[in-house]
Design goal:
elongated, single chain, 7 helices, mainly alpha
């Protein structure tokens, strides 16, 4: 049976694992998914079930959207999502100040980039 080409998602899972300095066995232990299955996912020989993908995402500290590269939260790891959730819990006045500060930093950064181009 011919092997499937590794998908971008399989490459992303491999990259995330390597960024953490984990072996396939480490990820398997942390996600409660067998090392053999982790290897198949990384080679693109198999596609994880939703349950296994969620376990892997949790172990890697990313959202399922991030792991599969789809959805509104695909570009946010769990730490960034938690920050957004924490901001949303602030009182309205404090929240407005945080957004004002963020907007000014973004505007300043865009201005610097435009000036340096």
């Amino acid at each position: 049976m011919p092997r499937a080409m590794p998908s971008t998602r399989a490459d992303a899972r491999l990259q995330l694992r390597k960024q953490k300095g984990w072996s396939q066995t480490d990820l398997a232990n942390k996600s409660n998914v067998s090392r053999e299955i982790i290897g198949k996912y990384e080679r693109g020989d198999a596609t994880p079930s939703i349950d296994f993908a969620k376990r892997i995402a949790d172990a890697l500290g990313v959202s399922l959207d991030y792991l599969v590269g789809e959805g509104i939260n695909a570009h946010f790891d769990k730490k960034k999502l938690q920050r957004i959730q924490d901001i949303e819990k602030l009182d309205d006045d404090t929240k407005e100040k945080v957004y004002f500060l963020i907007d000014n930093i973004i505007q300043n950064t865009k201005g610097k980039k435009a000036f340096n181009s």
